[in-house]
Amino acid sequence: MKALQVLSGVGDASAGEWWEVGEIATHLRRRLTSDEAAEIGPVCDVRGTTEGTRRFKAMRGYFPTGEALAFGYREAMDPPPSANADVTA
Description:
Blueprint: H1 2-6, E1 17-21, E2 26-30, H2 34-40, H3 50-59, H4 67-77
Antiparallel strand pairs: 1-2
Helix pairs in contact: 3-4
């Protein structure tokens, strides 16, 4: 799969990776390596938060209109499937 090729050498699959299947896209999520985590700091899912809204507004001009824009909006505004899960572990 293309996602696995793109993520080659990124993150630590042995620490955890999972797939999220949505209406239009499937996302491969992967835990960071300890070096990556030290460089970027704590990780959190911003979907469904004020920060998610801010990021969507900053990027919406890059989305084509129609379904792609609606998809981007849903991705930013909907809480993640595992809203209560600890995504930093």
